[in-house]
Amino acid sequence: MHIAKRAAEISPSLTLEITAKAKKFKEEGRDVVSFGAGEPDFNTPLYIRDAAKEALDKGLTKYTPASGTLALKKAVVDKLMRDNGLSYKTCEIVISNGAKHCLYNVLQAIVDPGDEVIIPAPYWLTYPELVKLCGGVSVFVETRVENGFKLTAAQLQAAITPKTRALILNNPNNPTGAVYTKDELMSLAHVIGKTELVVISDEVYEILNYKTGIYSIAAYSQKLKEQTVVVNGVSKTYAMTGWRIGFIAAAEPIAKAVAGMQSHTTSNPNSIAQYASVAAYENPAGQAFLAELKASLDRRRRLIMRELDSVEGLSYIKPEGAFYIMVDVHKCFGKSARGKKIDSAHAFATALLEQGDVAAIPCESFGAGDYIRLSYALGDE
Ligand code: PLP
C-alpha cells in the first residue's frame, strides 16, 4: 500500500505508547495513577453545558460560516480586548476545531517548502510534525535550564536566517511550565520587530499563569501585532478539550487565507460547540470558574513540588504556568530497576509504569531526553 511521503514521515508518538499501556493496565484492574493527561480533570462548567443544550433546542444544527459564527468572533474580540488589551476586528478572527487545528492552518497558510520555523526546545511535540506537513524545516533552539527554559533575544537573533518564516512561541509552556515575563517578551519582540517573520503565539495556557500577569507579545507594538498570530481557545481554559474550539487572531491576509483553506477542508467548526463557547467567554460565571480552576491547579503544583522534593536523585525546574512539571531523571541513567536497565527517559517511564503503576510521559519527543513530564491536572489524592 502506498502511503504519501508527508504522512509516512510523521513520527510515531512515544507518548501514545505509554498512555496505551497505562490504559491496558487499568483495564486489567491495576491501580494506575496517570500523570499523563493533557487536560484538566474538571467537567465543563454547567453554564456552558446549559448553553449547548439551549443551542440544540433552538435547532442551531446547521452549517455556520466556515470561519466561525459572528457571535463567537465578537466574543473573541471582546476577550482579546478585556484580557490582553488587543484590538481586533471580526474579519481578523478565525474559529477552528481546537487550537491544534489553528496551528495546522496557520503553518499551511504561511510556510512554503524549505522555509524555516524556529521552535524553542523543549517544545510541544506536535509543532515539528505540523511544520513537516507543510514541507517546512524546524530550527530547534535549545533553551537553557539556567534561563528557566526560556528563549533569549540573543538566541533568537542567532537563529534567524533569510529563510526564517516563523517563530512558534508557547507561553505558558508545555512541557516546561515556563512563563515569560513581560520584559522577556519585550526583548524578543525587539528582535522580531526588525524582521518580517511571523510569531505564532500559542497562548492556550494563558490563564494558568501563577506568577506574572497575562501579557501577549502582540501587545508590544502595532507592527508586532501585525506580525503575530495569536492562537488560543477554550480547551484548557474552560475544561472543554472535547468540544474542539480554538481561534486565531491575525492580520487580515492570514485570516483570509486560513478561512479559505478551512472552507474546503472542514467547513465550519461544530455549531453547538461554537454556541457554547460564546457562553464560555461572555457569561460572568466564567470568571468564578477560572479563579477556581487556577487556584486548584496552583495548589496541586505546590503539592507535586513538595512530594518531588522528597525523592532523592530527581530534580525539576519550578513550573510557573500550565499544569506540567518536567522532572530531570538523567541521574538514574546507567542504573537498573528490578533487572531493567534505565538508559533513557523512555526506559525510566516504562519501568515507572510497569513496576510502580505510575504513568508519566518521557520527553524525548519534546526535545528533552533527560526528562519525564508529569501533568498535575488530576485529583490531589
Ligand atoms: N498548544 C499546546 C501547547 C498544547 O499543549 C495543546 C494541547 O495539549 C494545544 C495547543 C491544543 O489545544 P486544543 O485542544 O485546543 O487543540
Textual characterization of the structure:
The protein is 40% helix and 16% strand. The chain is α/β, with parallel strands linked by helices. A seven-stranded mixed sheet has the order 2-8-7-6-5-3-4, with helices on both faces. A four-stranded antiparallel sheet has the order 9-10-15-14. The protein has a two-stranded parallel ribbon with strand order 1-13. The longest helix has 25 residues. The model has no long low-confidence stretch (mean pLDDT 95). Bound molecules: pyridoxal-5'-phosphate. The site of pyridoxal-5'-phosphate has 13 residues, from helix 5.
Number of strands: 15
Bound molecules: pyridoxal-5'-phosphate
Mean pLDDT: 95
Radius of gyration: 21 Å
Number of helix segments?
13
Q: What is the terminal separation in angstroms? A: 48 Å
Sequence of secondary-structure elements: HHEHHEHEHEHEHEHEEHHHEEEEHEEE
The assigned structural class equals alpha/beta
Helix content: 25-40%
Strand proportion, as a percent range, falls in 15-25%
User: Which strand order do you get reading across the main beta sheet?
Assistant: 2-8-7-6-5-3-4
Overall geometry comes to globular
Largest sheet: 7 strands, mixed
pLDDT under 50 segments (min length 5)? Answer: none
Question: What secondary-structure arrangement, pairings included, does this model have?
Answer:
Blueprint: H1 5-8, H2 14-27, E1 33-34, H3 46-57, H4 70-84, E2 93-96, H5 99-110, E3 116-121, H6 126-133, E4 137-142, H7 153-159, E5 164-170, H8 182-192, E6 198-202, H9 222-227, E7 228-233, E8 246-249, H10 252-265, H11 271-282, H12 285-309, E9 315-316, E10 324-328, E11 335-337, E12 340-342, H13 345-356, E13 358-359, E14 361-362, E15 371-375
Parallel strand pairs: 1-13, 3-4, 3-5, 5-6, 6-7
Antiparallel strand pairs: 2-8, 7-8, 9-10, 10-15, 11-12, 14-15
The protein binds pyridoxal-5'-phosphate (PLP).
